[in-house]
Write a structure and sequence with these properties.
95 residues; alpha+beta; 3-stranded antiparallel β-sheet
């Protein structure tokens, strides 16, 4: 899945959220899940992929990421729950 993507990770349903952007979603989520890189997701155990969207290019993905990061928390929760009401970890769907 080497396509630009914006993704949301969660520590648990309605837990801590992290929004990121990548050009390789499978690899990046694996890195988060395995705490390969020090930072927010490792410190706060934010490992479940609960939402993602694919984009044609990194410019549009980065624009969308910035937009989503500026949203109120409830808007992010609403977006997740529309697509993934059970807050299921979607990582295995990518494999």
């Amino acid at each position: 899945m080497n396509k630009a993507a914006v993704y949301i990770l969660s520590s648990k349903p309605n837990g801590t959220l992290y929004i990121g952007v990548t050009s390789d979603l499978v690899k990046r989520v694996w890195q988060h899940k395995n705490d390969v890189i020090d930072g927010f997701t490792k410190e706060h155990s934010v490992h479940d992929l609960v939402y993602f969207e694919l984009h044609e290019d990194m410019v549009s993905a980065i624009t969308r990421e910035k937009q989503m990061k500026a949203w109120q928390r409830q808007w992010k929760i609403n977006l997740i729950e529309e697509a993934n009401p059970q807050w299921r970890d979607l990582y295995s769907d990518l494999l």
